[in-house]
Write a structure and sequence with these properties.
Blueprint (H helix, E strand, L loop, with lengths): L5 H22 L4 H25 L4 H4 L41 H23 L5 H6 L18 H4 L1 H13 L1 H16 L15 H13 L4 H18 L1 H22 L6
Helix pairs in contact: 1-2, 1-8, 2-7, 4-10, 4-11, 7-11, 8-9, 8-10, 8-11, 9-10, 10-11
Length: 271
């Protein structure tokens, strides 16, 4: 990676965990064991990518977690080459250029976390509530992926796979794939659709075309297109307005609450 362009290297590091997840989803059987393997491999790749990003000390996902730092922030201009990515070098002379609206402080962090928590709960309700409508289940759901047959048990039921693998499914859906999807769709893809060197685009920058494409591609990954589109839009707006950390919190809360609902109510078709 030392001999490739920085934007290419960073793109690979941002996208690798999600691409690994999708590849393993297609390659492994739709069983609890397969899901556990996919979760473990994706988590390992994700942690390795974070480590590499940290070693290279580039503008990376650590900064994106709150978007308090970007290439327009003086603390991020550690490499003189980064200055060339600014649209106007004269901005460096303007102290007001560095007054980011979300200055890093405990109040803003707490606000972003609270908004993410509330957003995740709202999306969770939006995801579950339509399932009790016969009309919605008949006409609006698009079964793709690894849904179990309606007449058979889910591979993630404790009676089928045992409680340890059911808990792995809960942990993987909430604390592995949710952050991985947010980093890929909101932090990488949304900005990559705007420019090749996605690092030069602040996460707080709004671009309607890129936003709609990001929501559309996120929707294709899920088996419930209507609620998936709403969720993708909600997470995207949270990332733009409050930072990637807020979107990750929302997605984690949504998936965690959905998993607890599935286990408590026995409504395994959500998984």
């Amino acid at each position: 990676m030392l001999f490739v362009q920085r934007e290419t290297r960073d793109a690979v590091l941002y996208a690798a965990p999600f691409l690994a997840w999708i590849t393993l989803q297609m390659a492994l059987p739709a069983t609890a064991v397969g899901y556990a393997v996919r979760t473990g491999v994706t988590a390992a790749i994700g942690l390795a990518c974070l480590k590499v990003l940290k070693v290279f000390k580039v503008h990376n996902v650590f900064n994106d977690l709150n978007d308090f730092k970007d290439l327009n922030h003086p603390n991020d201009l550690k490499d003189p080459k980064d200055i060339n990515s600014l649209k106007d070098l004269n901005d460096l002379k303007d102290p007001n250029h560095f007054n980011h609206p979300n200055d890093l402080n405990h109040l803003n962090v707490l606000k972003a976390l609270c908004v993410g928590l509330i957003g995740g709960l709202v999306v969770n309700v939006l995801w579950i509530a339509p399932e009790y409508s016969t009309w919605y289940r008949t006409w609006m759901e698009l079964p793709i992926g690894e849904l179990p047959p309606a007449s058979g048990p889910s591979p993630y039921e404790p009676s089928v796979c045992g409680w340890p693998l059911t808990i792995v499914k809960l942990i993987g859906s909430a604390f592995v794939i949710a952050p991985v999807e947010e980093v890929f769709f909101r932090s990488f893809l949304y900005r990559r659709l705007q420019t090749r060197d996605f690092r030069a685009v602040p996460l707080s920058s709004f671009d309607l075309s890129s936003f709609l494409w990001m929501v559309f591609l996120f929707t294709l990954e899920h088996d419930r297109p209507v609620v998936a589109a709403l969720a993708g839009a909600a997470y995207g707006l949270l990332a733009i307005r409050f930072g990637l950390g807020s979107a990750i919190v929302a997605h984690v809360v949504t998936n965690l609450m959905l998993g607890l609902h599935v286990i408590y109510r026995g409504e395994w078709w959500f998984w």
